[in-house]
Amino acid sequence: MPVKHSALIEWRDGQPYASAFQDVYFSTDNGLLETEHVFLQGNHLARRWQTLQTQRFTIAETGFGTGLNFLCAAKLWLATAPKEARLHFISVEKYPLSLAEISMALQLWPSLMDLIEPFLAQYAHLLRGTSSMLFDHRVQLSLCIGDATTAYQSHAITPTKPVIDAWFLDGFSPAKNPTMWQAALFEKMALLSNSKTTFATFTSAGAVRRALTQVGFAVIKQAGFGKKREMLCGHFIGSADAH
Ligand SMILES: C[S@@+](CC[C@H](N)C(=O)[O-])C[C@H]1O[C@@H](n2cnc3c(N)ncnc32)[C@H](O)[C@@H]1O
User: Fold this and answer.
1) Could you say which architecture CATH assigns to the domain 9-236?
2) 22, 95, 104: residue to mutate for ligand 1 pocket, most atoms within 8 A of CB
3) Domain residue spans of the chain
4) pLDDT in tens, 73-87
């Protein structure tokens, strides 16, 4: 069944703004550079992909939004990872943008055009539940429409084994969207993580840092992007009761 597009957005200086959350989709300084700094570098993806020893790498994201994080990750993968390996990018979005809105938002990034075109052609057929999209036979996107915690708790999109290699924690600021940053999500992250799993997020909120530490992530604060002084990233070190 076709999906119901429920995002409530307005445009400010040509950039999407979420009226319902009073928050931006990405940094007004430069969303693309923010994605590279926070999510790609925060998870050390270029280095890991250049030396990848496995056939598969899985990223899990909360809050797909305009797809900017996905498209930047896919572009880096195609440029750095071994040809025979496949990237599986899993993302969850509760309030999907319409095709017209997402097309307009992505016009901001001409350097991603080679991927934007095949992406929009597939996004046009977005379904309720999970839609699977393929790019160059080397990148698979599983986009689930629903709440992030509920989706990751159900086994509809994630396997039962701890196989997530990198987490992208997006989803508006915890102060403006507290229900997304809940304990149940962090507990599920731990269950799906292993000793090589990393995470990165634009926020440096103390509650997020403490929650991630509690479930077994080693968390570090580093310089944020643009106006954001700090962000969080780190890796899973496990805890006695996590697995
Ligand atoms: C800051 S935007 C994400 C930007 C995005 N990563 C990008 O590349 O454009 C946050 C996204 O999280 C979504 N979101 C908010 N609460 C959510 C929830 N509980 N579950 C899933 N998605 C959620 C919003 O609708 C929005 O699209």
Assistant:
1) 3-Layer(aba) Sandwich (3.40)
2) 95
3) 9-236
4) 999 999 999 999 999
